[in-house]
Amino acid sequence: MAAPTVMDKLVSLAKRRGFVFQSSEVYGGLGSVWDYGPLGVELKKNVKDRWWQAMVQARDDIEGLDAAILMHPKVWEASGHVAGFTDPLVDCRTCKARFRADKLADAACPQKPSKHPGEHSTCDLTEPRLFNLMFKTFMGPVEEQAAVVYLRPETAQGIYVNYLNVLNSSRQKIPFGIAQIGKAFRNEITPGNFIFRTREFEQMEMQFFVKPGTDDEWFQRWRALRMAWHHDLGLNPDKLRWHQHGPTELAHYARAAYDIEYQFPFGWQEIEGVHNRTDFDLKRHQEHSGKKLEYFEQASGERYVPFIVETSAGADRVTLTVLVDAYREEQVEGELRVVLGFHPKIAPIKAAVLPLVNKDRMPEMAAALYNDLRRHFPCFYDDGGAIGRRYRRMDEVGTPFCLTVDGQSAEDGQVTVRHRDSMQQDRIALGQVLSFLRERL
Ligand code: ATP
User: Fold this and answer.
1) Which among 36, 46, 41, 48 is positioned nearest to 205, based on CA atoms?
2) Nearest CA to ligand 1 atom 6
3) Residue 240 has pLDDT above 90, yes or no
4) From residue 45, how far is each of 38, 140, 352 by CA, in Å?
């Protein structure tokens, strides 16, 4: 049997330690749908909170929005999704597997032996046909064509159709942006690579409305800001790069598009897109709804339909990136140490309190410290087993600091801080633990 890959190890760790479980596992699982466990929900929430902080709370020129998943079906006609949100689908005539015609790298047929023993021939593929990726359902009690609604395949459209509501209620002026985090659904032909490509996922999208003619400048500015955000998340800069969409890759609405790519164990892949969408979306909604979506610029007396610069990242995909980037194995004193070296700001557990032995006032002191710290951030209390094993358990879930209360603590009022990455240990006074952690989280 082949040795487990990094992805195999990560999927198994994620399950064992409560980051990510397969959906409906007791029924055999549902294809490419995943549930976040106790640590996963904290990790993903930290990713989303950092995005919201950087994109909404730290800026005067961006407002938040939480639009519903279900929208008027005409939205998706206007946006072009009903007619054009398709991938080319091909089938293998022999094994019946389905592939995206533009992603055929692994089309090896398990039922068609090759001339070389132990290998398989490539699949016998049909001509591509277009497959719409939107999930359809019915609204109300009657299942008829007139009642068809879609699960949104992107959050952006909820922003476009609310742009005047937000503008008028917030007293913003162009240039300004609207940001939103929410679920999106795509009936992907070939989902996979754990939570990289799933059929239900969360997007973190921001649409920035600008005066035509200033779009290139804003596009460049947003490219720089978004790459800096991924660096701030603690991702290895050598594993991040830009990919510019060539003329054949550009979406129908885009004038320019760049992807931020990360070097996953399965290759360089997109984690975020930055797009200059021009005035395509607002003009289409204007045509289809019959409502004017122009902006009146008081200073110049001009009226125009704004251009839009979009930044679109997947919350699940960034969470996977953070997990992959953090995962490392080390040999420490002849033993394997598995570490998730998260940036402390996104670590699901910030500190663990570990009483060393069960005697004197130690458990009381440790419990008091734990109860104090947990009011401020997620902490963990562990009094079971050898201290070395307790440290390893915390390394494996990425807890940046362990606080050990030992026999001396009752005498000198100090605890040992053990750093996850260097494994260095320092003594600090109990009364300073909170400020010590605060400075580093
Ligand atoms: P692809 O070509 O890989 O299908 P896309 O170019 O259609 O992706 P966008 O529409 O630009 O992707 O989506 C923006 C972001 O949303 C992506 O960068 C990604 O992080 C996330 N995303 C898109 N589809 C999925 C999915 N099926 N599962 C998880 N995240 C996704």
Assistant:
1) 48
2) 273
3) yes
4) 11, 33, 20
Best probe residue, ligand 1, of 188, 193, 312 (max atoms within 8 Å of C-beta): 312
- Eight-state DSSP code of residue 324: H
Report the alpha-carbon distance of residue 188 to residue 114 in Å, rounded: 29
Query: How is domain 6-74+135-323 classified at the architecture level of CATH?
Result: 2-Layer Sandwich (3.30)
As to burial, measured by CB atoms within 10 angstroms (0-12 exposed, 13-18 middle, 19+ buried), residue 397 is buried
User: Residue 178 and residue 389: Cα distance in Å, rounded?
Assistant: 47
Structure token pair of residue 9: 């190890």
State mean pLDDT over 363-376: 93
Task: Please give the average per-residue pLDDT across 159-166, as a whole number.
Answer: 97
Ligand 1: distance of its center to the CA of 314 in Å? 7
Question: What type of residue sits at position 223?
Answer: R
- Provide the 10 A C-beta neighbour count for residue 95: 15
Domains 6-74+135-323 and 349-440 share a fold: no
- If you average pLDDT over residues 71-95, what whole number do you get? 91
Q: What is the DSSP letter of 128?
A: P
Q: pTM surpassing 0.90? A: yes
Contacts of 330 (CB under 8 A, 6+ apart): 336, 337, 339
Cα separation, 264 vs 429, in Å, equals 42
The domain limits of the chain are 6-74+135-323, 86-132, 349-440
Q: Whose CA is nearest to atom 24 of ligand 1?
A: 197
Domain 349-440: give its CATH code: 3.40.50.800
**Least confident segment among 96-110, 121-135, 176-190, 387-401:** 96-110
